[in-house]
């Protein structure tokens, strides 16, 4: 096990992720693009939050990282990992989890805050789920991936009177978007405040499409909702994530209108399907 060596590792990591992607679940979170973006994310400690495992020949067999929020009253570190298809043995998985536990203990000691280690498993990943449970994890939340064909008719958006939609305009929108996100998700499970730095880093993601993403603006100029979208470089599937409506503007059709507007634009871009990642317990 060793730490990340920066640009010198990127080619090997890209090849490794492509090998894993060929056999793993489609659309597994985080995506390959998300993982690669983490290597220069402002919240990531490159030397401490990413680990690589190699075999005796120096070939990469496992990669793991922690997404650790920089602000908040508690620290919930999300562990992601990929293991080479020919190296998927319990001992390696346990080694990855042990590293993550040790790293989160360091965070606890440094910040003097309560910490928690989170990890995800798809419904089809029974082995991973069993392994996580055997290591002390328990199911805390379910999330769904919803899919919508864009070949079917998409209704015209019906915004409330006086509301408008416009695309995200890059860094000038950073502060307002972050305030909107935080006010929208402050009552959501596992909420951690977003930051301007994180928003500006998102703009560097080649799959993120601010020109197709939208914000909804109320008649008085208040930002009422947002809907981000991503178009992966390969294929004809697009992602819509996140989408949210500020408290006080919910149950008025704002989110539905944003989704319809974004899906219309994705269809024009040649996408055949749109996927949405949602909390199964979202009541809004």
TrEMBL record:
Key word Ligase present: no
GO molecular function: acyltransferase activity, transferring groups other than amino-acyl groups
The keyword Transferase belongs to this UniProt entry's keyword annotation: yes
Keywords linked to the UniProt accession: Transferase
Residue span(s) of domain N-acetyltransferase: 163-284
One Pfam family in the UniProt entry: Acetyltransf_1
SUPFAM superfamilies noted in UniProt: Acyl-CoA N-acyltransferases (Nat)
Name of this protein: Acetyltransferase, GNAT family
């Amino acid at each position: 096990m060793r730490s990340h060596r920066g640009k010198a590792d990127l080619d090997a990591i890209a090849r490794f992720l492509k090998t894993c992607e060929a056999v793993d679940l489609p659309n597994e979170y985080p995506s390959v693009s998300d993982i690669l973006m983490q290597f220069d994310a402002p919240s990531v400690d490159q030397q401490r939050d990413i680990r690589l495992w190699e075999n005796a020949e120096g070939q990469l067999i496992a990669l793991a990282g922690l997404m650790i929020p920089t602000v908040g009253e508690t620290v919930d570190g999300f562990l992601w990992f990929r293991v080479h298809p020919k190296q998927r043995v319990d001992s390696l998985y346990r080694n990855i989890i042990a590293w993550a536990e040790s790293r989160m203990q360091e965070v606890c000691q440094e910040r003097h805050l309560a910490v928690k280690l989170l990890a995800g498993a798809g419904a089809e990943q029974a082995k991973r789920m069993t392994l996580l449970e055997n290591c002390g994890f328990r199911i805390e939340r379910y999330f769904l991936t919803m899919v919508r064909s864009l070949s079917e008719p998409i209704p015209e958006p019906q915004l409330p009177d006086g509301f408008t939609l416009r695309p995200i305009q890059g860094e000038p929108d950073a502060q307002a978007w972050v305030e909107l996100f935080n006010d929208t998700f402050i009552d959501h499970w596992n909420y951690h405040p977003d930051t301007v730095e994180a928003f500006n880093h998102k703009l560097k993601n080649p799959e993120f499409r601010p020109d197709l993403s939208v914000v909804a603006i109320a008649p008085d100029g208040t930002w009422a909702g947002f809907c981000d979208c991503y178009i992966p470089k390969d294929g004809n599937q697009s992602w819509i994530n996140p989408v949210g409506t500020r408290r006080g503007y919910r149950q008025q059709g704002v989110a539905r209108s944003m989704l319809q507007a974004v899906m219309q634009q994705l269809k024009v871009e040649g996408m055949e399907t749109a996927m949405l990642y949602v909390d199964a317990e979202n009541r809004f």
